[in-house]
Amino acid sequence: MNRQNQNPSISRRGFLAAGSAAVIGAQAIASGSGAAGRGKSSANEPWPAVEGPFTLEPLPYAQDALAPSISANTMSFHYDKHHKGYVDRLNKMVEGKKLAEMKLEALIVETAKDPGMSGVFNPAAQAWNHTFYWKSMKPKGGGEPSGKLADKIKADLGGFEGFKKAFTDAANGQFGSGWAWLGLRDGKLEVTKTGNADTPIAHGGKPLLVIDVWEHAYYLDYQNKRAEYVAAFLEHLVNWEFAAANLG
Ligand code: FE
């Protein structure tokens, strides 16, 4: 697995430079690390720094970079409010607990086993899923994959058209909030969907690519037309290099 390409959205506090509260272009980062950066805001910090062991990683592109398929307005709400909200919630839920010392993936697997831990699992899985989603897209993405991944899609899913149909059906057919995935299980590609915060990494799956089909991902741009958002994702946004790197 290419760990770098599948890393979670939130990293241990120590990975960030002390006091860093960077704003890169339109990408606001709630780094909140280091005593100097905590508990106060400045012109470079649009919100108070996060208190807790987990932090929000920057977007891999500017907030307007995916327009017009996904507007800067949607990105702003989705990243600055929803994604950040999950990280903040997770930090609150693990405060003073052993869970705060775990790596995010391990915490997700651990809390998925116990329905009584859904208060931790949900924000943890949502935090991870969202970073994976940002990385599953890129400006001027979309189209068809090539190389080893294309061969694998041909062998396991009946070719690109087979993938496209299965992925589109999964994304449009997910009732209510959730996610549609291209992933690997037992060495074979699979297209799946999960509801709410659920994620394949909680169940032994290895994701390659994901689309967020919660309404907050598309409603400002497409209103109720989820199918148009899913089509735009496939045509203009998919980051096949990311998926190929995850395939390894
Ligand atoms: Fe979302």
Report on this structure:
- The protein contains 8 helices and 7 strands, in the order ββββαααααβββααα.
- It is of the alpha+beta class.
- The chain has 2 domains: 133 residues, Orthogonal Bundle (Helix Hairpins); 101 residues, minor pseudopilin epsh fold, CATH 3.55.40.20.
- A 3-stranded antiparallel beta sheet has the order 6-5-7. Strands 1-4 form a two-stranded antiparallel ribbon.
- A hairpin with a 2-residue loop joins β2 and β3.
- α5 runs antiparallel to α7.
- It is globular, with a radius of gyration of 18 Å.
- The N terminus is likely disordered.
- Fe (iii) ion (FE) binds next to α1.
Which properties best describe this structure?
alpha+beta, 13% strand, 7 strands, minor pseudopilin epsh fold, disordered N terminus, binds fe (iii) ion, 2 domains, Helix Hairpins, three-stranded antiparallel sheet, two-stranded antiparallel sheet, 248 residues
Short overview:
The protein contains 8 helices and 7 strands. It has about 250 residues and is α+β, with helices and mostly antiparallel strands. It has 2 domains: about 130 residues, Helix Hairpins; about 100 residues, 3-Layer(bab) Sandwich (minor pseudopilin epsh fold), CATH 3.55.40.
